[in-house]
Structures are given as structure tokens and as C-alpha cells.
Amino acid sequence: MINRRNLLQLSAGALAGSAFGAFPAFGQSAKNWDFADEYVASLSPGRAANYFIEELNKQVGDELTITYQGGGALGYKSAEHFNAVETGAVPMAITLVTQLNGVDPLLDLTNLPFLVRNAKESQDLWNIARDEYAKIFEENDQIALFAAPSPPSGIHSRVALDNPDVFKGLRIRTFDRISTTTLANAGASPLQVAWADVVPLLSTGALDAMLTSADGGVSISVWDFLGHFTELNYSSALYIAHVNRYEFEALSPRVQDAIMALCRPTDDYAWKTMGELVETGYGKLREHGTQVNTNPPAAVFDLLAQAGEAAKAEWLERVGDRGAAIMEAFEASRA
Predict the structure, then answer these.
(1) Can you give the pLDDT at residue 335?
(2) Which of 53, 68, 226, 256 could form a disulfide with 156 if both were Cys (CB 3.0 to 4.6 A apart)?
(3) Is 131 contained in some domain?
(4) How many CB atoms lie within 10 A of CB 247?
């Protein structure tokens, strides 16, 4: 029976055969891997990736050299990383997992609106759910390694979001299914847009606002287009680094052990530095004249929180017992 995974593998094999005359086993040549990232190195996933790469190269650089390819340098958007790594087109990548909800709805977990309240809860949620994440990657010939959180999302906008009526018809960039549903429920006109496409749309006036973190806005000089930022702590999106299983298994036990031993320390580094990214982002925005509102009106927050409740309920219905077990464990961790 030909399923999605088999079809992808057959396609990758055919391409490799046409290029090399035969399909060689992974690992027969010198180990030089590219590490794909749609975002730039200064953002949370890039910082975590480069920390991991630098530490690993210190330990096993004689056997494996990994090169960070940020800013979509390899031509892949984050949503395309899963298939690219599964087929071996790219050995390794770091991916915004909520863009992969078509693979498994559980991957929407970390973008449920207003679920986590701080960095500790964000990391606790990752640790509670990581085994379920790992199963999804394993089923698709990949290994999930470490994760990095995005600083909490807020809204960059042309006008101040000082009352609920501002959301009516607001053309706002969203980044996944749940954020799109939530903003639509709030009365906005959301458009799900890949990061690489944000600046062209802003420059043509096609967007009035965008949902992302403060440092995300800084990375594209958002002040050239939008003059306000509203802190909402909407969600702390999760990026997971993953590697092709066959590439990994072709490595020596020494290198495999070094990779796996670095996963938890990289998690800790990513969450430890998230607060720094938040403060740096706010400082840069203010430096360039952006009005930063860290205390939006309760009516604005209540509108968005209520709009997100339907998305949470729908997610639990789609995910079933797996989601309920994670939520139960997460609530217990808050006690």
C-alpha cells in the first residue's frame, strides 16, 4: 500500500537515483549537514540552532560539521521543512510546528490562545508533551531533538488597538490555523502568511497589522510600516529541531550520543534567553518610535480571550485523549 510517507520516500529515491545513478546509503561520504531555518539567526529558533551547532562542532567537528542556513537560504519555508527532512532533501531543520497541523492536530498545542502565562509554563508544557511530539516525528522517519519558544505574541498595527471596535475588518497577518480562527472570531479579516511574505504585503499596504512577537517585528524593521505594538501574551509558539532518521543512524555512536546529550541543554538555553529577547525587542521598537502598549484595555484582552475559547474546544475535540491527558498534566504542573 502506498501511503504518504512511502510516496515521499519513493520520490526522494527517484531523484537521488537520477542524480547519482544509484541510491547510496546515507553516511558513505563526509558528514557535512545543512540546517534549515526560515527565520533569521537573531530570532529564538536561530539562536537555539546556532548554540546547538557550536556546541556540537566543538565535540564532534572531526566527524560531523553542521552549517546553519537561516533566512530561508535553502529555499524552504518552515511549513515545507517536515517533508524536506523526511525525504532527506535537507538533513536537519528547525520548524514552527503549529504550521504542521495537517500532519497531526496535536502540533497546534503551543499556539492555543492564552494557554501559558510565562516562560516557565511554556517550558513545562514542552516537557509534558515532548514524548507525543517525538512519536509524530518518529512515524515520519525523523527524530525530534530540541525546541525553542518564540517570545509571546502581540500585535503590531498601524493604529492603536485601544478598543474592541478596532478589530472589525482589521487586515491582520496570522501564522497558523488557530490564530486565523481566533482573529476571525474577534471580527478581524485575518490572512495566514508565511514569514518570508510579510514584508512584501506590508510594503504594499495589504496588511493593517500582524500577529507576532516584538523581536519578530524588529527583525524586519516593522517601524517602517506599523507604528504600534500591543503586548498580549497571546501564545508562545514552539519551534522544534528535527533530523532525518536515516542520516542520524548513519552517524557513529559517538556523534549520535553527542547530539542527544545536547538536546536538553539547548532547551534550557532557548528558554533562558527568551526574556532577553523580549526586553531587547521592546527597546528596539521604542528606539525607532514605535508606541509599545504593555497594558491594553481589558475589553481588548477579553475580546481576544473569548474569541480563542472556540479554538481550544475544537482542538480538544480533534486531538481527543492525547490532548486531554496533556492538558490534565499541564494543569497539575501549575498547582
Answers:
(1) 73
(2) 226
(3) yes
(4) 21
Q: In the predicted model, is pLDDT for residue 130 greater than 90?
A: yes
What domain range is 138 assigned to?
30-151+237-276
Q: How many domains does the chain have?
A: 2
Q: How far apart are CA 71 and CA 89, in angstroms?
A: 18
Q: Over the stretch 39-87, which tens digit does the pLDDT of each residue have? A: 999 999 999 999 999 999 999 999 999 999 999 999 999 999 999 999 9
186/297 same-domain check: yes
Cα–Cα dist 25/246, whole Å: 9
Q: For residue 23, what pLDDT is reported? A: 39
272 with 326, same domain: the answer is no
Distance separating alpha carbons of residues 179 and 258, to the nearest angstrom: 37
CA distance 186 to 304: 6
Does residue 172 sit in the same domain as residue 256?
Answer: no
Grid cell digits, residue 18: 537520477
Backbone region of residue 187 per phi and psi (left: phi > 0; alpha: psi in -120 to 50; beta: other values): left
* Residue 52 falls inside a structural domain: yes
Residue 25, domain member (yes or no): no
Q: What H or E segment, with its residue span, contains residue 210?
A: strand 209-212
Give this prediction's pTM. 0.81
Flag whether 250 is in a domain.
yes
Q: Is residue 285 domain-shared with residue 202, that is, in the same domain?
A: yes
Give the mean pLDDT of 269-282: 91
**In a shared domain, residues 162 and 207:** yes
Contact 35, 3 (CB under 8 A): no
Q: What percent of the chain has pLDDT over 70?
A: 91
Average confidence score pLDDT of the chain = 90
Question: Are 310 and 182 contained in the same domain?
Answer: yes
62, 30 contact by CB (below 8 A): no
Q: Which three cell numbers stand for residue 305?
A: 480571550
Question: Does 288 lie in the same domain as 261?
Answer: no
Beta bridge partners, 65, equal 32
Predicted confidence at residue 98, as pLDDT, reads: 84
